[in-house]
Amino acid sequence: MQKYNISRSNYFYAIGLSYKKADAEIRGHFSLDEDAKLALMNQAKANDIESLIVTSTCNRTEIYGFAQHPFQLIQLLCDNTRGTVDEFQKVAYVYKNKDAIAHMFRVGSGLDSQILGDFEIISQLKKSAKLSRKFGLFNPFSERLVNAVIQASKRIKTETNISSGATSVSFASVQYILNNIENVSNKNILLFGTGKIGRNTCENLVKHTKNEQITLINRTKDKAEKIAGKFNLVVKDYANLQEEINSSGILIVATGAQRPTIDKHLINTNKPLLILDLSIPKNVDENVTELENVSLVHLDHLSKLTDQTLEERKKHIPLAVAIIEEVNSEFNDWLETRKFAPTIKALKHKLNDFKTAELDTQRKKLSDFNEKQAEIISNNIIQKITNHFAHHLKDDNISTDESLDLIKKVFQLEESTKTNV
């Protein structure tokens, strides 16, 4: 593996778990709400973590950060969630240095999403970066990397059709309703939870079902009212939840609670009821399936719904990968420059020491010594020498590490400071 000199004593890691190996229940154990994220950041600060980026969505929870060992980051996650280290190790992934960098590119570019081309993760990454910066846990390396991933994501969106067509968890849920429920336009639909997925689902419901009997409920009523006003929908108080469930034929749950908010005891109707749970952790208790009239579908099932749109998207993967490789290559070039910057700086200091000593000698020896001219000539020579070495170190055909060691040995350099990126 390529050695990155990107930190004084730490490596860059990506640790986490996703839909690929962890089911919804396990992902729920490691889900981080806003309070948990803040607690994790405070703990990282107290533990002298150098830089940290935390993301938690319905499909994945990840930490990108610097540590001497990945367990430091894993412990942070487990200390601030209901998950255990044993659970984590069974389903998790740990990437180091360039593999961690490559992983962030794939995630941020929609290639690792549960639904190919779903770019909602990039807004999460931006939000996470903003939080890290607020806590002073966002060093130049992380900032440059996140910006590079955002750049790759934008290019893939504009230069490929990998996100064409309406395919997302919210659309898949509406598609499922249309395929499985007759006379959808005449059914009472209740949407419980108006976060991002809830809002997107609401928009798709209005657009595709032609249903005018959609009711919204949210714990914070004004949030629901903002969305309802946009689509001219009905909003009910949280206190009316049970009453509204029992008068509905379709219930969509998209809340962000850490424990189930819906269970069989809220359902007192014999009418057929389809429940779609779009939440992580699961917000609908499995006990609702004990009721004969209730059908429960979770977002993991919805995310597996493949259609022609997804098949078309797969054709654009090679071009997306090529874009990632190009942007990643530019990032690595910058990283390589950061790698030898301390040595070039130390070399310049050493050459300046030579210059000072030699000018002092010549000043004593020559009565007509031209100080100003000698200074200009010396500085120009030093700049040419350091530029020559920098150009050499950028050459792909040479071993940068070996060249750095040789330069340090020949000029007896002692780098006063490592580049802490």
Automatic annotation (TrEMBL):
Membrane spanning residue stretches: none
Domain (Tetrapyrrole biosynthesis glutamyl-tRNA reductase dimerisation) ranges: 320-413
Keywords: NADP, Oxidoreductase, Porphyrin biosynthesis
GO molecular function terms listed in the Swiss-Prot or TrEMBL record: glutamyl-tRNA reductase activity; NADP binding
Residue ranges annotated for the Glutamyl-tRNA reductase N-terminal domain, each copy included: 15-160
EC class name: oxidoreductase
UniProt cross-references to InterPro entries, sorted A to Z: 4pyrrol_synth_GluRdtase (IPR000343), 4pyrrol_synth_GluRdtase_dimer (IPR015896), 4pyrrol_synth_GluRdtase_N (IPR015895), GluRdtase_CS (IPR018214), GluRdtase_dimer_dom_sf (IPR036453), GluRdtase_N_sf (IPR036343), NAD(P)-bd_dom_sf (IPR036291), Shikm_DH/Glu-tRNA_Rdtase (IPR006151)
Pathway(s) this gene product operates in, as recorded in its UniProt entry: Porphyrin-containing compound metabolism; protoporphyrin-IX biosynthesis; 5-aminolevulinate from L-glutamyl-tRNA(Glu): step 1/2
Record protein name field: Glutamyl-tRNA reductase
Organism: Hwangdonia lutea
Gene name linked to the record: hemA
